[in-house]
Fold:
Amino acid sequence: MNSQERLEDHEPKIAIELLKYEKITPNLSYVTTSPEALSDWKHVRLPYEWILCYEDEIVDIDAVRSKVQPQLEVLLRDYLVIMDCTSSTKPATIAFYQLAQMYLVPLVYVQETTRRLKWLISRNSIMREVGLTA
Structure:
């Protein structure tokens, strides 16, 4: 498989397609990644905003959280946000989960082998958390 074929099936695109299947169409998409991983995508113009975490940051829960949190807070002022932790490092996944819980943001994960969307924190669970019925 060449790099172009891999990019056509990259995880953010799959997640967005699965969200659209559930009648959720994102207006903006942000990807948190390392500069090294971003360089793998340099030949393709991808429609994302990037939050870059360097090698020592992408493996540090607090560093990932501190990089993502300010942008998340800005987005939450004007948008409904859904976070995706597919293909993240374990520390990044933990940071995303912590942020999603803190800000009551739905969190998804794409099972890569089956290409199924799993809601780790769903809209309904958030509604129950704040005392609303789903």
